[in-house]
Amino acid sequence: MNRLILICLCSFAFSITLFAQAPAASPIATAAVTTQASTPAGQPSAAQLPKPGPEAQKLAYYLGTWEGQGETKGGPFGPAGKLSSTITCDWFTGGFQLVCRGEERGPTGKRAFLNILAYDEKAKAYAEYGISSLGESEYSTGGSLVGNKRIFVKDLDGIKLRYTETQVSPVLYTYLAEASKDGGPWTVIAEGKVTKVR
User: Quick check: 28 pLDDT over 50?
Assistant: First the structure.
């Protein structure tokens, strides 16, 4: 159980780091429609297709390859140790979602993962669906982005996880993951930084 909580937390922490900054727009969303092709009856033309909104376009920040370095703190949620990760993100067709593939290593071992990042218009929040080579699957939504801080809180069977990301620059952010068991005080369980490498 502790290993699963640590794996979920590490996944949660790294995954959530992929939501904060946004200077560039989706190349798909900003491409002008220059021709109007004939379409089958009942199908929208290219000019009528939905376009990603500004919230989805903020995900463009994460295009490319990123490397993370951090550490977990020993305690009831798992062993202490170093964390490292590499992730590469690309637009999914249409420019509404970002598909990210990566690998991370930590005190509980190595895992590969695939995350789909999006903005959920109905929930008015960022969302993520992730799977891993350890058989995990998870859907997360919510969070806030105020100034240079993104905060995301999640409940996991009586344990609250809080993830805070601080944007340091366009190519660097730091993260802090904390847990509270049964409404108790917040305890730091992981922290680190993520840097864009290309």
Answer: no
Would you place residue 14 in the very low, low, confident or very high pLDDT band (cuts 50, 70, 90)? very low
Task: Supply the DSSP string of 25-78, one letter for each residue.
Answer: PPHHHHPPP-------TTPPPGGGS----HHHHGGGGG-EEEEEEEEEPPBTTB
Residue with tokens 């699957």: 137
Q: What angle do CA 7, 11, 13 make, to 5 degrees?
A: 115
Total length of the chain: 198
- Can you give the pLDDT at residue 187? 92
pTM: 0.72
